[in-house]
Amino acid sequence: MLFLSACTPSKTNLSGTWLASYPGGPLKVKIVHTGDDITATLLDGNAFVPAGKEAFSGKFKLPVFEGQQLCAYPGFQRPFHVKVMIKVIDNDHFTEDVAPGSNCGGFPVDWVRMK
User: Fold this and answer.
1) Global model pTM greater than 0.85
2) Range of 93's domain?
């Protein structure tokens, strides 16, 4: 039997401000988690995606779930979405990586809740 995490989706709420650490540098992100729906919006922008844009979204039904990540070329040129896999460790930590076959730089991402 495989145990991925001690978290239970019904008891975990990811709403709040998070710090996303990844090879391109840290970003502050606001997450809204209502029911199964999760939407992350950039509070800090970078050379690829400006502040205020949706970083990723998904449906949190299991500790490991699929989402859609916004990616773009420098200057927010030709924005596109890729599939990502999100693994929730607990209420204050999760990881994100591109799904096999997806192409977007800056992964993996480690997420920590800002207090």
Assistant:
1) yes
2) 9-113
